[in-house]
């Protein structure tokens, strides 16, 4: 017996369209990215029409990663600067305070935008300490480690995030840097930043110094 005798033509057409729609829906479901995971738990609800009714509670588990936010701090105002600063350090401090609040932009060195290494370079330049404008990793390789008592001395460079970020130490409490999210700011050496420190370097405070490039 032929297919057409079993199914009249209009019914056969409807049947074929239904199959195509079901196939397309199955392919869309298979390729659609999952945004969340639903965990189903079974609970017993109140009786309906004299019979217990079982209902499913859906618990949605987010797949988004937690992003640790950088904390905010009040910027200290030193006035003449911490005790013991020389003329060069006071000039550096003045240059830093002029840049506070300036927005961040990768690959820039001022005056309206800074990235972290551009900020460091421009501060030393304004103070008369000349070295090559290069990236954070080259700063790390170009300058010598400080003595233990100089690590938290004003002007020491502090490095973070696997040599991906650099700032200028203010004192044992905090440092200045160009933050990607907040621009040029002061941040404290709290748990957020301390666990990210890679080490320190000290720029020779002479009037001219050429940082080695390409290392």
Structure overview:
By secondary structure, the protein is an alpha+beta fold. The protein has helices at about 5, 10-30, 85-100, 115-125, 135-140, 190-195, and strands at about 35-50, 50-60, 155-160, 165-170, 175-180, 185-190, 195-200. The chain has 2 domains: about 5-60, no CATH class; about 85-200, endopeptidase domain like (from Nostoc punctiforme) (endopeptidase fold (from Nostoc punctiforme), Alpha-Beta Complex). About 30% of the residues lie in helices and about 25% in strands. A hairpin with a 3-residue loop joins β5 (about 175-180) and β6. The longest helix has 23 residues, at about 10-30. Residues about 30-50 and about 50-70 have low confidence and may be disordered.
* CATH homology superfamily name of the largest domain: endopeptidase domain like (from Nostoc punctiforme)
Distance between termini?
Answer: 83 Å
- Unreliable runs, pLDDT <50, ≥5 residues? 29-49, 51-68
CATH fold group of the largest domain? endopeptidase fold (from Nostoc punctiforme)
The radius of gyration over CA amounts to: 32 Å
Number of domains: 2
- Named CATH architecture of the largest domain: Alpha-Beta Complex
Q: Assign the structural class, choosing from mainly alpha, mainly beta, alpha/beta, alpha+beta, or little secondary structure.
A: alpha+beta
């Amino acid at each position: 017996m032929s297919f057409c005798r079993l199914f009249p033509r209009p019914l056969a057409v409807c049947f074929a369209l239904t199959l195509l729609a079901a196939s397309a829906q199955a392919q869309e479901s298979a390729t659609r990215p999952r945004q969340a995971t639903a965990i189903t738990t079974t609970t017993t609800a109140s009786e309906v029409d004299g019979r217990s009714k079982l209902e499913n509670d859906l618990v949605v588990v987010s797949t988004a990663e937690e992003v640790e936010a950088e904390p905010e701090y009040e910027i200290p105002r030193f006035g003449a600067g911490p005790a013991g600063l020389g003329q060069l350090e006071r000039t550096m401090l003045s240059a830093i305070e002029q840049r506070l609040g300036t927005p961040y932009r990768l690959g820039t060195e001022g005056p309206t935008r800074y990235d972290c290494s551009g900020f460091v370079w421009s501060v030393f330049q304004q103070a008369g300490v000349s070295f090559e404008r290069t990236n954070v990793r080259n700063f790390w390789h170009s300058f010598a480690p400080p003595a233990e008592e100089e690590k938290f001395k004003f002007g020491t460079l502090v490095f973070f995030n696997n040599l991906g970020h650099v700032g200028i130490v203010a004192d044992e409490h905090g440092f200045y840097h160009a933050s990607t999210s907040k621009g040029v700011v002061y941040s404290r050496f709290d748990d957020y930043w301390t666990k990210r420190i890679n080490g320190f370097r000290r720029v020779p405070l002479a009037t001219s110094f050429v940082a080695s490039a390409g290392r």
